[in-house]
């Protein structure tokens, strides 16, 4: 079992920044993929960004150039730095571990 604890969501004005964190604990394998998905009201859950244990990353086109995913493998923690936020980034953001384990979600609201 793997437990994921997210933090860092909140309310921010358009153009602002937020940093999400996700700490994993439990049965963690050295080779893994962690990342972030999001789900806006009335929409399907979608991939935001993922990062492998080797450091390879993949981003949704909608966030490229604005969001940066990173990880601290020693702490089993993944981060999502979100800059130039837009109202359409408003969603619940979920941390994921190897597409199997999911966090409880953290709300990000971009509004003036």
Characterization of this structure:
With 112 residues, the chain is mainly beta. Helix content is 0%, strand content 54%. The chain has no helices and 11 strands. The chain has strands at residues 2-7, 10-12, 18-26, 33-39, 46-52, 57-59, 67-72, 77-82, 91-97, 101-102, 106-110. The strands form 2 sheets. Strands 2, 4, 5, 6, 9, 10 and 11 form a 7-stranded mixed beta sheet that branches. A 4-stranded antiparallel beta sheet has the order 1-3-8-7, with no helix packed on it. A hairpin with a 6-residue loop joins strand 4 and strand 5 (46-52). The relative contact order is 0.33.
Question: Count of DSSP helices?
Answer: 0
Taken as a percent bin, the fraction of beta residues is: over 45%
The string of secondary-structure elements, in order, is: EEEEEEEEEEE
Biggest sheet statistics: 7 strands, mixed
Overall helicity: under 10%
Topology, pairings included?
Elements: E1 2-7, E2 10-12, E3 18-26, E4 33-39, E5 46-52, E6 57-59, E7 67-72, E8 77-82, E9 91-97, E10 101-102, E11 106-110
Parallel strand pairs: 2-11
Antiparallel strand pairs: 1-3, 3-8, 4-5, 4-9, 5-6, 7-8, 9-10, 9-11
Which terms summarize this structure?
112 residues; mainly beta; 4-stranded antiparallel beta sheet; 0% helix; 54% strand; globular
Summarize the structure.
The protein has no helices and 11 strands. Strands 2, 4, 5, 6, 9, 10 and 11 form a 7-stranded mixed beta sheet that branches. Strands 1-3-8-7 form a 4-stranded antiparallel beta sheet, with no helix packed on it.
């Amino acid at each position: 079992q793997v437990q994921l604890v997210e933090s860092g969501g909140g309310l921010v004005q358009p153009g602002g920044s937020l940093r999400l964190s996700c700490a994993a604990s439990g049965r963690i394998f050295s080779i893994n993929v962690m990342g972030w998905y999001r789900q806006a009201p009335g929409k399907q859950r979608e991939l935001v960004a993922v990062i492998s244990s080797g450091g390879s990353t993949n981003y949704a086109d909608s966030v490229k150039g604005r969001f940066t995913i990173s990880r601290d493998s020693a702490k089993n923690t993944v981060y999502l730095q979100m800059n130039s936020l837009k109202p359409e980034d408003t969603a619940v953001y979920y941390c994921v571990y190897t597409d199997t384990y999911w966090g409880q979600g953290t709300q990000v609201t971009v509004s003036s």
